[in-house]
Amino acid sequence: MPLAREAVELLVQAARAWYFEGNQHGLRDREWMALRFLGRANRFSRTPSALAGFIGATRATASQIVKTLESKSFLVRKPSQEDKRSVVLHVTTQGEKWLSQHDPINHVVNAVRGLETDDRIQLRDSLREVLNHLDAAHQRLDASVCRDCMFLAERSPSTGKGRATAEFMCRLYRAPVSLEETELLCTSFERTRDRPKIEEHLDRARVASQS
Ligand code: SF4
Q1: pLDDT value of residue 139
Q2: What is the separation, in whole angstroms, between the first and last Cα of the chain?
Q3: What's the pLDDT tens digit per position in 1-18?
Q4: Who has greater pLDDT, 209 or 162?
Q5: What's the pTM?
Q6: In angstroms, what CA-CA distances link 1 with 5, 6, 8, 123?
Q7: Whose CA is nearest to atom 6 of ligand 1?
Q8: Which of 4, 34, 99, 163 has the fewest CB atoms in 10 Å of its CB?
């Protein structure tokens, strides 16, 4: 079997962990997808419309999913600090606990965590490259991490301790972005072509520390 097909068929087998009939621990697969996204998204992307785009659903379906997650106390709505007419969805402590204990992808995450650091980085980068090709073909990108976005700028230079002391600014939303937020997902992400936002050795240290 050609290597490319074999690799994709393995991915399809792995996908059985997150696409399933019925529900697991009280949530259907799309509800898990929504909770997982909202647990990882930045404040600009935790909105009903961004959620609908990410999970590939209509606004009505996304709204129903939000109601289900609210009814289980996994989610609360709060007014946006940037725009008081909008709401931002927040995953509650109960929601975070449910994700940590019962998310159906946890088995896959644990299996990947067992790989060597270099293998994890290579797997992540290869999957991202594949998704980039798919996104380019369909002229869309669901979401990616802020640190690699072309709109991210350093507001004040780091003070010798590297990235840890730097302050960031989103040039699209014209708003400050904290170091922690640079690791979150954003649906307004635009890929930078000219400069990696994170140095390779720092990325490796970060991935190794997550073992
Ligand atoms: S810099 Fe890019 S990824 Fe980060 S918040 Fe702004 S648009 Fe989103």
Answers
A1: 53
A2: 33
A3: 789 999 999 999 988 888
A4: 209
A5: 0.85
A6: 7, 6, 11, 21
A7: 170
A8: 4
Angle (nearest 5°) at CA 105 between 104 and 110: 120
Closest atom of ligand 1 to CA, residue 45: 8
Substitution candidate for ligand 1 out of 144, 147, 177, 197 with most atoms within 8 A of CB = 177
* Spacing, Cα 177 to ligand 1 middle (Å): 8
> 7-11, 14-18, 20-24, 153-157 — which is least confidently predicted?
153-157
Domain edge (last residue) among 56, 87, 108: 108
Whole-angstrom distance, CA of residue 119 vs CA of residue 117: 5
Residues contacting ligand 1 via CB (< 6 Å): 42, 44, 146, 149, 151-152, 170, 172-173, 177, 186, 188-189
Tell me the CATH number at 87: 1.10.10.10
Whose alpha carbon is nearest atom 3 of ligand 1? Answer: 146
Residue found by looking up tokens 């937020």 in the block = 181
| pLDDT, position 195 | 53
Q: Are residues 10 and 92 in the same domain?
A: yes
Grade residue 137 by pLDDT with cuts at 50, 70 and 90: low
| Domain ranges, residue 39 | 3-108
